[in-house]
Design goal:
With about 1350 residues, the protein is α/β, with parallel strands linked by helices. The strands form 7 sheets. It has a 7-stranded mixed β-sheet, with helices on both faces. It has a 6-stranded mixed β-sheet with strand order 10-13-14-8-15-16. Strands 18-22-19-20 form a 4-stranded mixed β-sheet, covered by helices on one side. Strand 24 (about 1305-1310), helix 41 and strand 25 form a beta-alpha-beta unit. Helix 5 (about 100-140) packs parallel to helix 32. The radius of gyration is 38 Å and the shape is elongated.
Length: about 1350
């Protein structure tokens, strides 16, 4: 084939080196390359400024401006002037280039190489196809055969190069994703401070986390070597970013969604631009080599002008994309929040309220998406008209003009006209490719604008993370003589310490206290007085505003010196052994924990049965498996394993019995560990030497009994006593117990003699139990439907009626597709006619044809964007319908709880309802449009093809389609399962980040950041490995797919063209005959090409449907479970009967967990109005499980439950604060309108304004009753902070009791919902409930509550045994 030359160049063209054309070609190429490189160069010039904007310099200025009157940084509303979108993009691009590494560099070089090879092969294919056109026109079969073989080989090579390019692009995107994710994780979890050896002095950087000191040998500029010490520590940004700073509301959205999309689109942009640059340079050179360089200048001028006009009209796509991601994140966050608090919401019956929050976020997202679609629609029409369709017309003029007046004008011979046709074919490929390459570069500005939206959000996350990591603040503190520091010591000391919340409230002022090793400190005070906050400052979670702190731990692992057991127990996902050694890993253990050691630790906390229940190597989500008390005991087992010098116990035993709590205290003291305990139980005074009382208003008081005398003067206690308020009563109760009691007594002991109990019922005897088979509860049952049935069900959901809105849009899509097909047919005919006019040299007719082409371009510029717009509208409409369909089941009858807890499968419902639905509907809309278009095209062009080539051509077309489809099905991997697994892994990675944010404080106190980072990165690595595997399989399959669906059909097209030319009748010497043949060949080529493109689209639909099937299965697996939770209620219809009398009755009810563990056998108990019931028993014995059965969350295995249909209100064990105002917290789960209606029905008030005032007055009285009125004074009725962050656990529990008092039900089910309050506050709340006539069913470990109950249900061992006792006061 080497003898084949494309064109006979003119003498002037062959002497290119001596002409001016070389100069023009070089200038044009330089313009193209220079414009491409300008972006990268500008990014490098701005890099220092951008880096500084993300660094510590600006942070210094910010912090100087932020200091408020309390000496603490005020809450930031605007931290800095936001980066320009492209500056953020430059900054991230600089990071990616710097950290690209050998693999990333190889990917990038491979992309450059494949771009050049792809252009070179495409250029050769264009040459060969020009020769093929000439050979067909001249009917030279041997030449045609050689050319078609070469074309086949080139097409296969092109498919291989193209798919390799896609593989390299995807690999580069994954490399970008790993770089940015690792960078974010580094800032999120740790920092490194490098400097000279710090000896024994360290800056107070936080926590109870590991600090590792490493030495490095560094060579300075003068050639000397120095030993530099690196101090590595957790900065706990994962806590501060959500609980202190609040500038970024959903970091997991940016990490798990924004970064992957940014990296994927950036790598695609790099590949497109590399290909465009390669095409532009090569085709500019070729165009200048055989035609006048003026064509290049015309093309450049047009593209630059059109690009400038497009940029002038372009909307702010970056801001739109940024807002879209923000709204997507907020919508996903409310779903994740519901998943986290599913049980509490179910107990409250808050599904309607949660549904309103979810739909509010979803509607806001839909409104914004409608705006985005509208902007894309009208801008798409402008862009398509200028760059695509009108550009094509300009291209036609440039293609044809040399053949009318240039050096490519044909001579009159047949061979000359054949040569002209070959030249025309090649010239067309050159001009079109050049237009496409320059158009791609011009459109890149819009893509960069969209990328800048992602870049802004990612850069903001990096900026905030780096600022919160406090590298600059620590350096300033270290260099300042008055810096807040701590040094290695054998004690803990607070000197003039001020504790201020992130919102500026002073909790403790000027605290001075020293705790020696061997002493024990008890801290008490009202809820929200700053007890836990004191240790947030000590741990570095909150900033130290004034004073200084001394604590042990420099140069060693602080977990060995100070170990914190937090208020909210935290259990990591892992094995039982992992829980005991947390936050260490097996590699970090100095002395590996043996099985015998595990047995001893678990025996100390009465949890040895866990060894029998769970295999040692089984990874479990312990937070779902264990009760609150069991989790607290596991936390104490952790403490016993670590054996620290100081132990901080932050109300970490509130859910265990008093006896067990005292046993733990003795055990800790026996280890030689000094206790710092936060508690409301006066009985613990006996185990402590010092009592620190906080009043919540900045004041504090210390009582010291180590030497038999009080540290504080008696006068201080008397003064405090005279000014006693409800807020200070907690502190006074413990102080009085400390002053009047001894270490061996407790203030609650006398109360034990004030009542007696009498057994009135009990569980069946053991002999009977052994003869009765254990009951079995049924979980959610649903048989998976086959994929075709699921597809049919999906069709009914998405298009229930043919003539509704979605049906109308589908008909409109069909109409637009038909219009585009007709326009394509006209363009194909126009192409053939233009060739005929060139052969006939009819310039006037060609000019008229150009006018028609402009009109067709205008029509196409309306039809194509409208088709894309309608496709996106259909996708959005289907997303709305599918979301509404799932939510109507998900938020009904507590299905959101059941799918997570009693379905028997791991279900990421939040991921499926949000991400999977969005992806499925988007892909499905594209698939449906992709089906309509090829079907219309096939029908239309098959008819056209039959007219031109007869039945034989149509038979060849259809035979090829069926054979190709069969071949692709045979070699296709299981893309459905691969896509399913990828979405599941993405959901798991996102959930791990959401879980980290939920438990951030407990993790930070444990110092578990490095452990959590390891778990998260393990999930991320698994996701990356799967993505790489998926990418490799796509690459191998893609080579055959692209060759069969796109490249091979071109060769079939040439074969049909040759057959047509062989059978064409007429005198070949006549110009008219030649014109007709040229027109027919060109038209036939267009028709056959369009037909094969349509068949190729149909063949490719198979692959798309396989990938889509994974999403369909995930969505409908969830839908089937949700329907099962509605159609097959977990409680049999004959097991529950709404009692007419006011009584709750259990009759022979077996309490069985979803995992088939029997907790209470044949429970029989009646609770009538005025006869309150106290449920007691060890942790994990089934106290909360009885309430789950009563609420209908768990099934009844056997027996009968009778209860009123209304008038039961649950206050769950885990407090829950909803989204909304302080008013919303009290009236939850009612909305404000429903609460006003309730007030209207109770007080019969007619005026609405009076109702509003009456409601607020009523709520204020409730706040006074629960001693939370200061929240109203501090926040007001309408503030909407994150209540979970600003309220202590005790305050949240009292807010739960406020809900109970507002609803004033007949029965109140209280599941250990006051264990974080003081004893006297707890008794006060129960007195109010009794006075209001509320009959309570209480689960508690506190004996002080016994006088408020008439019955006691004792769950003895959690193995089925129970006793019901009457309480006699």
């Amino acid at each position: 084939m080497a003898s084949l030359q494309l064109l006979q160049l003119t003498e002037h063209g062959r002497n290119l080196l001596s002409s001016k054309r070389r100069t023009l070609a070089i200038v044009s190429g330089a313009l193209l390359a220079g414009g491409t490189l300008a972006y990268a160069q500008s990014g490098r010039r701005r890099k220092p400024q951008d880096a500084n904007s993300c660094s510590d310099t600006n942070a210094q200025t910010r912090n100087k401006e932020r200091v408020g009157q309390n000496g603490v940084d005020d809450k930031l509303v605007k931290t800095r002037k936001k980066k320009n979108g492209l500056k953020s993009l430059h900054f991230l691009a600089a990071i990616l280039i710097k950290k690209l590494g050998p693999n990333g560099t190889n990917y990038l070089l491979g992309m450059i190489l494949t771009a050049v090879l792809r252009t070179a092969v495409g250029h050769r294919i264009a040459k060969v196809q020009g020769y093929l056109f000439r050979a067909a026109f001249l009917r030279r079969v041997p030449t045609f055969t050689r050319l078609i073989i070469e074309n086949l080989l080139l097409c296969f090579l092109q498919s291989t190069i193209y798919q390799t390019s896609k593989y390299l692009t995807g690999s580069l995107g994954l490399r970008f994703k790993k770089i940015l994710t690792d960078l974010v994780h580094t800032d999120y979890f740790e920092f490194r401070l490098v400097g000279p050896s710090l000896d024994h002095t360290m800056i107070l950087v936080g926590g109870f986390s590991p600090h590792l000191t490493r030495a490095y040998v560094v060579r300075s500029g003068d050639g000397q070597t120095h030993v530099v010490q690196t101090l590595t520590s957790e900065n706990m940004v994962y806590y501060k970013i959500s609980h202190v700073d609040h500038r970024i509301s959903n970091p997991e959205q940016r990490i798990a969604s924004d970064i992957p999309k940014f990296c994927s689109e950036l790598s695609d942009l790099v590949q497109d631009d590399l290909t465009a640059v390669a095409d532009g340079l090569i085709y500019i050179w070729r165009l200048c080599s055989y035609a006048s360089p003026k064509y290049v200048l015309w093309i450049l001028a047009y593209v630059i002008g059109a690009g400038g006009a497009i940029r002038k009209f372009s909307p702010a796509f970056g801001k739109l994309k940024s807002m879209e991601q923000q709204l997507e994140g907020e919508y996903r966050q409310v779903h994740s929040r519901l998943r986290t608090h599913a049980e509490s919401v179910a107990f409250y019956g808050g599904e309607n309220r949660e549904a309103s929050h979810i739909m509010q976020r979803f509607r806001a997202l839909v409104r914004h998406l409608n705006v985005v679609l509208h902007e894309n629609w009208w801008f798409g029409m402008i862009q398509d008209f200028l760059l695509k369709y009108l550009g094509a017309t300009v291209g036609v003029v440039l293609i044809i003009e040399p053949f009318f007046a240039g050096n490519l004008r044909p001579d009159s011979s047949t061979l000359g006209r054949a040569e002209m046709l070959s030249n025309l074919r090649y010239h067309t490929s050159v001009i079109i490719s050049l237009f496409q390459s320059l158009g791609t570069l011009s459109v890149s500005s819009r893509k960069l604008n969209i990328l800048s939206g992602y870049a802004n959000r990612i850069c903001e996350l990096l900026d905030v993370s780096r600022e919160l990591s406090g590298v600059r603040d620590r350096l300033i503190s270290h260099n300042s003589p008055a810096g807040n520091y701590t040094s290695e010591a054998n004690y803990i000391e607070f000197s003039g310490v001020k504790v201020v919340t992130p919102s500026g409230n002073v909790l403790v002022d000027d605290l001075t206290l020293r705790l020696e090793s061997g002493s024990n400190l008890l801290i008490t005070g009202p809820n929200g007085s700053g007890k836990s906050s004191l240790f947030r400052v000590l741990g570095g979670l909150w900033p130290l505003v004034s004073g200084h702190i001394v604590k042990p731990g420099v140069g060693s692992n602080l977990n060995k010196e100070i170990f914190y057991v937090p208020q909210r127990p935290y259990t990591a996902v892992g094995t039982l052994r992992d829980q005991l050694i947390y936050p260490l890993t097996a590699d970090e253990e100095t002395e590996p924990l043996s099985y015998g050691g595990m047995v001893d630790l678990l025996k100390n906390v009465d949890l040895e049965y866990l060894l029998e229940r769970y295999p040692l190597d089984k990874e479990v989500n312990w937070g779902d498996e264990l009760s609150l008390g069991e989790q607290q005991r596991l936390g104490m087992a952790r403490l016993f394993y670590h054996k620290p010098k100081f132990a901080i116990l932050d109300e970490c035993t509130s859910a265990v019995t008093t006896d067990m709590e005292e046993r733990f205290c003795k055990r800790v003291r026996a280890m030689g560990t000094s206790c710092i305990t936060i508690s409301h139980r006066p009985a613990l005074v006996a185990f402590h030497d010092i009592v620190l009382s906080l009043d919540g208003e900045g004041g504090w008081n210390v009582q010291d009994n180590r030497n038999g005398s009080s540290f504080s003067a008696e006068l201080e206690f008397d003064t405090l006593k005279l000014s006693e308020t409800d807020r200070k009563s907690d502190a006074l109760a413990v102080q009085r117990a400390f002053v009047t009691g001894t270490k061996g007594t407790a203030s609650s002991k006398p109360k034990k003699q004030s009542y007696s109990t009498e057994v009135i019922a009990s569980s069946p005897s053991m002999e009977i139990e052994q003869t009765v088979q254990s009951p079995i509860v049924t979980q959610l049952q649903c048989s998976p439907r086959p994929l075709p049935v699921r597809v049919a069900a999906m069709s009914q959901i998405l298009v229930p009626k043919l003539f509704d809105k979605q049906g109308g849009q589908l008909l409109a899509v069909a109409l637009l597709v038909f219009s585009r097909t007709w326009i394509s047919d006209r363009i194909a005919s126009l192409n053939g006619t233009s060739v005929k006019y060139v052969l006939e040299q009819d310039k006037a007719a060609f000019i008229r044809l150009t006018g028609i082409s402009v009109l067709q371009s205008a029509a196409n510029s309306i039809v194509s964007p409208s088709l894309r717009h309608l496709t996106s509208r259909i996708a959005l409409g289907w997303r709305i319908r599918m979301t509404n369909h799932l939510l109507q089941y998900y938020l009904k009858r507590n299905a959101f709880y059941k799918v997570f807890n009693i379905s028997g499968v791991t279900m990421d419902a939040d991921q499926r309802i949000t991400h999977d639905v969005e992806k499925l509907t988007s892909d499905l809309a594209g698939l449906v449009t992709g089906m309509v278009k090829p079907l219309v095209d096939i029908i239309w062009f098959t008819w056209r093809m039959k007219l031109l080539s007869g039945r034989r051509g149509v038979a060849i077309l259809y035979a090829y389609m069926f054979l190709g489809l069969g071949f692709l099905r045979a070699v296709s991997p299981d893309f459905g399962d691969l896509a399913n697994q990828e979405q599941e892994l993405e959901g798991t990675f996102r959930f791990m980040h959401a879980r980290l944010r939920t438990h951030a404080e407990s993790i930070a106190f444990f110092g578990g950041g490095s452990r959590e980072k390891a778990m998260i990165e393990a999930k991320f690595t698994t996701l990356l490995e799967h993505s790489r595997t998926f990418l490799r399989k796509r690459w191998l399959y893609g080579i055959f797919d692209d060759f069969v669906t796109k490249q091979l059909p071109n060769n079939v097209t040439w074969g049909l063209s040759m057959l047509y030319a062989m059978e064409h009748k007429g005198d070949r010497a006549l110009t008219s005959t030649q014109g007709e043949l040229a027109h027919a060949l060109r038209f036939l080529a267009s028709v056959v090409s369009q037909s094969f493109i349509a068949f190729g689209d149909i063949l490719e639909l198979h692959k798309k449907f396989l990938e889509l099937s994974g999403g369909i299965n995930r969505i409908f697996e969830l839908e089937e479970l949700l329907k099962a939770s509605q159609n097959n209620p977990v409680v049999p219809s004959n097991a529950i009967n709404a009692a007419s009398e006011e009584i709750i009755s259990f009759h022979d009810v077996d309490i069985v967990t979803p995992s088939q563990k029997l907790l209470a056998r044949q429970l029989s108990c009646d609770v009538s109005r005025g006869k309150s019931l106290l449920v007691t028993g060890p942790n994990g014995s089934g106290k909360s499980s009885i309430f789950r059965v009563l609420q209908g969350l768990w099934p009844i295995a056997s027996g009968r439950l009778s209860k009123p249909s209304q008038g039961i209100f649950h206050v769950p064990q885990r407090p829950y604060t909803c989204l909304g105002t302080l008013r919303d917290q009290i009236i939850y789960p009612l909305s404000r309108e429903e609460a006003e209606l309730k007030m209207l029905s109770i007080y019969e008030i007619g005026d609405k304004s009076t109702v509003c005032m009456s409601l607020d007055d009523h709520l204020k009285r409730i706040l006074e009753n629960v001693r939370l009125v200061y929240l109203l004074e501090r926040e007001g009725w309408d503030a909407t902070p994150n209540w979970e962050d600003i309220l202590s656990l005790g305050e949240q529990q009292r807010l739960g009791m406020a809900r109970l008092f507002f609803h004033c039900p007949k029965f109140g089910v209280l599941d250990e919902c006051t264990n974080a309050t003081s004893v006297d506050v707890e008794e006060h709340l129960y007195r109010i409930a009794t006075n209001m006539g509320i009959t309570v069913i209480t689960s508690s470990q506190r004996p002080a509550l016994i006088p408020f109950h008439s019955l006691e249900l004792k769950l003895i061992d959690g193995e089925g045994r129970w006793e019901l006792c009457a309480i006699h006061q």
